[in-house]
Write a structure and sequence with these properties.
The structure holds 2 protein chains of 2 kinds. By secondary structure, chain A is mainly α. Chain A contains 15 helices and 6 strands. Chain A has a domain of about 240 residues. In chain A, helix 1 runs antiparallel to helix 8 and helix 3 packs antiparallel against helix 4. Chain B has 11 helices and 2 strands, in the order ααααββααααααα. In chain B, strands 1-2 form a two-stranded antiparallel ribbon. The longest helix of chain B is centred in the N-terminal third of the chain and has 31 residues. Classes of the chains: A mainly alpha, B mainly alpha. At the A-B interface, helix 6, helix 10, helix 12 and helix 14 of A face helix 4, helix 9 and helix 11 of B.
């Protein structure tokens, strides 16, 4: 593809994505927002697992820190009310603060992530998820415990990304409420994350991460500070997770601990495996597939002939989506080990079919 | 003091069940280098078969059927899926078993629905009392069975041909296969063994004091993971010790919940993971695991 054609494709994509809220119903906007949050977090994980070669099952923990961090920093403290407290910071500051918090948490994990290797690291980070669940359930003063916490809507220079303030915003005859407004924030954050991720892969630290994955000894010989770079990979990946978490929180409107458990960690791993570990674009595609699958199947469960109502003995929409999800993992790993990214590469240049990566 | 001893003994017995499940993880890891996340759903499958069949064919035949089905399912995963992707790296294979786990546990959850299947064990809800310490009979039997199984396995691994094949495959697969050891057969044996161990673990985890077979039983295999990591992933002895530690820690934390209230509710389920993280800080390969040596 020539450079000019590439620019043209990007421009068309931007216009189409920006115009989508005019046409789409609320369900699709909500699904899209969840997918964008997943893309951001998945890009962070693919940098850690695919590029730097460090298996992590703890990504959900850092996503939770981002989500709850934002809710706490931006939340308003109502004296005497039963609601969890907050610092009442401006939302933009809260967003940056939440991402920084997630990064600090990732850095604090470095005594373990810097020394523990391979599968031990994966399972150690699994411990983080359970520890996180425990904290979220018990620190009710901040997280609201089981009941969760309401998330303050985002706003910038007095323009609120909610249904109010300005109260009635109509563009081309379409009322712009919370979802429509959040859509643009999501687009900007997602595009920025993908852009940063792709650049990181090709940068000096990115090459160092790749060397670490292939051989720590070789990396050390080449002058890569192994412990520092491993900790850095974890920190960057956690900050991505935190940003994804903030967008999750905004899209949900109310967050509960259950959303950030072991299953979410597995989801992220599956996203990057389906997409092809190490590929930023692949992670994005995998994130869209994994996020949208259950929501879309559930949305159309009424009109799909095979599906039964939950509990009636047949296969319900939720179960079917679990089946498709599980089968997709197995199929990708057996038949297309390098995921969607690898498939795309082979389609583009059949000569590279046997390319060794 | 009495409460402490009661809890400690109860923890040891629970730990014995964890040790069985953990031993399954280690066996598979040594033979094929896979972290088998499908262990949880295989455990659930074994318990489910026992729960469904014990009314019609009697308890002991049902147990035999449960162990066989779980072992067969486990071998099937190895032969159909893992064998085809043997060359892939650790993470890939682990995620592959996560996929299998999702498929199998979704189907079992669908089959079980909202029922709670009773396991139909003859010891029911009996409680054994020795010197003022009260422990459910099922847990005592579990401890005995675990002891016998662990001892038998230890002897088998040390002295039988199968054990030698297993150990040499774990040591150096390529050399072992040059010496005429059929790696695929060794692997299938390891997976079958792990499936059987999971089913036995499932039987005792769903007996009294648990209510019966519910989809949650599959999650208990996850609780064996800290045990495996704690002991060192490639060490069978480590799995047993790790299992016992995790059992004691979680029962003690749950028992002294009120005294530990500053740590929050439900500390019993979280404590094993905290212990695991602390041990990894000091010993990055677990208590008994082989330390990785890097040669250039």
């Amino acid at each position: 593809m020539s450079r000019r054609a590439g620019v043209l494709v990007v421009v068309i994509a931007v216009v189409v994505l920006a115009a989508l809220p005019i046409y789409l119903e609320a369900f699709w906007l909500q699904t899209g927002l969840f997918a964008m949050a997943a893309i951001i977090a998945a890009v962070g994980l693919t940098l850690l697992v695919g590029l730097a070669g460090q298996l992590s099952l703890g990504h959900a923990f850092f996503v939770a820190i981002g989500a709850y961090g934002y809710a706490f920093l931006a939340g308003t403290d109502v004296p005497g009310a039963d609601a969890p407290s907050g610092l009442g910071l401006p939302p933009l500051l809260a967003l940056i603060g939440a991402v920084a918090l997630a990064g600090v948490a990732g850095a604090l994990f470095s005594p373990i992530s810097g020394r523990v290797r391979g599968i031990y690291l994966g399972l150690a980070s699994l411990g983080l998820v359970f520890l996180g669940q425990h904290i979220l359930q018990n620190a009710a003063g901040i997280t609201g415990g089981y009941a969760g916490v309401t998330v303050e809507p985002f706003s910038l220079f007095g323009f609120s990304l909610s249904d109010a303030d300005p109260d009635r915003l109509v563009i081309l005859g379409v009322p712009y409420g919370q979802l429509e407004r959040l859509w643009y924030l999501g687009l900007v954050l997602t595009a920025g994350s993908i852009w940063f991720g792709r650049n990181l892969v090709r940068s000096r630290p990115g090459r160092a991460f790749g060397t670490l994955r292939d051989s720590e000894v070789a990396a050390a010989v080449m002058g890569v500070d192994v412990v520092r770079y491993k900790a850095a990979a974890f920190t960057v990946s956690s900050m991505y997770a935190g940003l994804g978490g903030v967008l999750y929180a905004l899209a949900f409107g109310r967050i509960v601990p259950d959303s950030f458990g072991f299953l979410l960690s597995v989801d992220f791993l599956v996203m990057i495996v389906i997409g092809g570990a190490g590929s930023v674009g692949g992670a994005a595609a995998g994130a869209v597939f994994v996020t949208a699958l259950p929501l879309v199947l559930n949305h159309y469960s009424g009109s799909l002939p095979l599906l039964a109502a939950p509990g009636s003995g047949g296969v319900s929409a939720a179960e079917l989506s679990r089946f498709v999800y599980g089968a997709a993992i197995v199929a990708v790993l057996l038949f297309a080990r390098d995921g969607l990214a690898g498939l795309a590469r082979r389609l583009r240049s059949p000569a590279l079919k046997e390319e060794v990566t | 003091m009495n409460q402490f001893v009661t809890l400690f003994v109860g923890g040891l017995f629970l730990g014995a069940i964890y040790a069985l499940v953990a031993l399954g993880f280690v066996t598979i890891f040594r033979a094929t280098g896979v972290i088998n996340f499908a262990q949880g759903s295989v455990l659930l499958l074994g318990a489910y078969v026992i729960g469904r069949l014990h009314d019609s064919i009697g308890f002991w035949p049902a147990v035999a059927a449960g162990i066989l089905v779980a072992a067969a399912a486990s071998v099937l995963v190895d032969v159909v899926l893992i064998r085809r992707a043997r060359a892939a790296d650790l993470g890939t294979l682990a995620i592959l078993t996560l996929g299998v786990n999702i498929l199998l546990s979704t189907e079992l959850t669908r089959q079980i629905g909202t029922d709670v299947l009773s396991i139909g064990a003859p010891w029911g809800s009996d409680v054994v009392e020795v010197a003022g310490i009260r422990v459910p009979a099922s847990r005592v039997i579990a401890g005995g069975v675990a002891l016998v199984l662990v001892a038998a396995l230890g002897v088998a691994v040390k002295f039988t041909d199968w054990g030698v094949a297993m150990r040499s495959a774990a040591e150096d697969g390529e050399t072992a296969s040059l010496m005429g050891i059929r790696l695929n057969r060794v692997a299938a044996g390891a997976w079958a063994l792990a499936g059987g161990l999971a089913a036995v673990g499932g039987l005792f985890l769903t007996s009294f004091p648990a209510a019966g077979v519910t989809p949650d039983a599959g999650l208990v295999a996850l609780a064996a993971i800290p045990a495996v990591v704690l002991g060192g992933f490639d060490s069978p002895a480590g799995a047993v010790v790790g299992g016992l530690i995790i059992g004691v820690v979680s029962v003690l934390c749950a028992g002294y919940q009120d005294e530990l209230s500053f740590l929050g509710r439900g500390i019993g389920t979280t404590a094993p993971y905290v212990v695991m993280l602390l041990v990894l800080l000091v010993r990055p390969s677990g208590l008994f695991g082989t330390r990785e040596v890097t040669r250039v």
